[in-house]
Amino acid sequence: MFMQSLPGFRDFLPEDCAKRNYIFARWREVARRYGFVEWEGPVLEPTDLYKKKSGDEIVEQLFNFTDKGEREVAMRPELTPTLARVVGAHEREFKKPFKWFSIGQFFRYEKQQRGRLREHYQLNCDIIGEKDLAADIELVALCVDVLREFGFTEKDFVVRVSDRDFWTDFFRERNVSEDRWEELLQIIDRSGREPHEKTAEKLGKLAEPVFATRQSGGKSEKLDQLIGGLRVRGLADFVQIDVGIVRGLAYYTGIVFEVFDRAGKLRAIAGGGRYDNLIAQLSDGAVSLPALGFAMGDVVLGELINEIPSAHEAMQKAVASDRKIDIYVVIAKEERRADALTQIQILRDRGYRVDYPLTPTKVARQFQAAEDAGASLALLYGDEWPQVKAKNLPTREESLIDHGALLDSVTKFFIVPGSA
Ligand code: HAM
Q: Structure pTM?
C-alpha cells in the first residue's frame, strides 16, 4: 500500500505543473499590463487575523493549530487580511493609490467537491488608497482581461456585479437595526445555494421584499456608472448587474462582484469587491485607507479551460511548446562522450535546452528520446569525428559540421530554422 495524499490536496505531476505555470504566466502578464506590482505574504498567520474580520464561514474552514511556541496559528485561507495587516504597517512607504498583485497557495478545510479543494492557488489583485469608482471599474476590467487572456469570450463567462450599499440602503429604509445587517447579508449571500423556504424562514418579514428585489434585479446609479465605465472599454458585454451577489466574506463595504461560467455549471471563478474599513479595523484605527480587490482561483479556472475547446487547445499548445528542448546530443561512440559533454556545457551556457543520455544507450533509443523531448536538432558524436553530424529532426535533413564551427552553425540553425 502506498501512502495516500490527504483529501483535497493535489500532486502536481510535470504535466500539471506545466498547466499551473501556464495559468500563472497569464495571471502575471495581465496584472503587469495594468501596472500592478507583485508582493507576497506568509502562508502561516496568527489565527486571530481571520477571527477578527473574515467572517464565520472562513473561520470554520481554517486549518489551524497551536505551534511549538504555544501560538494559535492558521494556514492562510485568503490573502486580504494579510494585505490589510501589511498595508497597515508599511503604507507610508508607498504613494497612493498603489496596485499590488500576488500569486500563492491557500488552504480551507472544505468538503472536497467539484471546484472546491482543501488547497488552491489564487491570483489576488488589490488597489489601495482610492475611493473613486474609477478604481472599481479598473479592477473589474482587469478581471475580465485576465480571463480574456485564456481565450474566453463574453459567451463563456460573466461578471455579476452588485453593491452592498444597495442592501444597506434597503435595510435602512425598512428600519432594520444596523447590528442585523451583516447576518442578513450572509443570508442573502447563501440564498442562491439553499432551498427557498429555508432562506424565507431566516429572513422572516423581510423575505418577500428581498425576493421581489432580487427578482426585479434591483436598480442602482452606482452600478449603472460602473457598467458605463466598462462600456467605453468595450467590456460591457462581460458584466451583468445582479444584486443577489453579496459575497460571503464579512469585510466588504461597497461594490462586490463574482465571476461565473455562462453555462452555469461551475462554482465561482473569481470574486472580490471593496473593503474600505478593513485596514482601519486591523490596525485598530491607526491607518485608514479605502481598498478593493479580487481573487481568482486556479481550480475552477482550470475546469473552465477544459470545458471550452479553444481555451483548452491554446493551453495544450503552449504547454507542449514549453516542455520542448532545443538540442539532443546523440553519443554514438562512447569514446566521444567527453567531447560531447564539453560542447553540451558550451551550448547550455548559451541558453540552449540540451539533453543527452547519462549512460551508454543504443543510438535508436537516443533518437527516440530526442523525438520524445521535442528537440528540433540532434547532434551526433560518432565515427564522423572531428566532424559532428547535425540532423534537423522535423525535416530529417542531415549535414556534417566541423566540431570547431558547431556553435556558429547551431546559432544560425535557431535564428533561421533548418539552416544547420
Ligand atoms: P473568495 O471568493 O473566497 O475571495 O475566493 C476567491 C476565489 O478563490 C473563488 O472564486 C474560487 O475560485 C477560489 N476558491 C476559494 N475557495 C476555494 C477552494 N476551497 N477550492 C478551490 N478554489 C477556491 C477571497 O478569497 C477574497 N480574499 C478575494 C479578495 C481579494 N477580495 C479582495 N481582495
A: 0.94
